[in-house]
Design a protein that fits this description.
With about 210 residues, the chain is mainly α. The protein contains six helices and no strands. The protein has a domain at about 1-90. The chain has helices at about 1-20, 25-40, 40-60, 65-185, 190-195, 195-209. The protein is rod-shaped and about 180 Å long. The relative contact order is 0.04. Keywords: Coiled coil.
């Protein structure tokens, strides 16, 4: 990987520089190499590789190798700062999204609590209505039983009335028939009947009442 490649490059150049007596120039590269290993940083390993390349090139050209190293470090710091700024922007965005999400969560939680309260009230009302319905059903059952008993009593009374009425009608018919016979009998006007007119009229009067 990039980390192993950078460290290998440093070791390779170190051998070349040691033979040339450029140990002072290599101190910074070796420090960066050790730092890369310690922190397992690919970026530091790449910087160490660039530093060793710059040291190697300056050993032939005579340029100020430390100026090049400072430039490499400055470039790396700038890159890290840019990445940090990008990360900070991303973090700020994530924090904002998280805050909005938490706010929405709180709003939803409040809404759920309100709905739960309403559901509890509706459940209590439903239980009350069920009790009232049960009471009404019981009352209706009692009324139905009472109505059935009253209907039975009326039917019995009607049956008794019908029977009694038939007897009365039969009795009236007999009385009317008797009146007819008596009226016809006393209407003949013979002497035998005349003696009994007073008694006959009394009987007829009783029958006509």
């Amino acid at each position: 990987d990039d980390l192993s490649y950078g460290l290998n490059q440093v070791s390779f150049v170190q051998t070349g520089i040691t033979t040339r007596g450029g140990l002072r120039q290599f101190e910074a590269a070796r420090f960066m190499r050790d730092l890369a290993r310690k922190h397992h940083s690919t970026q530091l390993a790449q910087l160490a590789a660039r530093m060793t390349s710059a040291i190697r090139a300056s050993s032939h050209s005579g340029d100020d190798v430390f100026a090049k190293i400072k430039g490499l470090i400055s470039d790396m710091v700038e890159k890290i700062e840019q990445e940090a700024a990008a990360d900070a922007t991303k973090k700020a965005f994530c924090d904002k999204e998280l805050a909005e999400s938490n706010q929405k969560k709180d709003e939803k939680t409040t809404e759920i609590e309100k709905l739960s309260t309403q559901i509890d009230k509706m459940s209590a009302r439903s239980a009350t209505l069920k009790e009232e319905v049960a009471a009404l059903q019981t009352a209706l059952g009692e009324l139905s039983t009472s109505q059935a008993e009253m209907d039975k009593l009326r039917a019995e009374e009607k049956e008794q009335y019908t029977k009694n009425n038939a007897d009365v009608e039969q009795g009236l018919y007999g009385i009317k028939l008797a009146l007819k016979v008596l009226n016809e009998y006393y209407a003949k006007g013979d002497k035998a009947h005349a003696a009994n007119d007073g008694g006959g009229e009394g009987i007829i009067g009783l029958l006509e009442v």
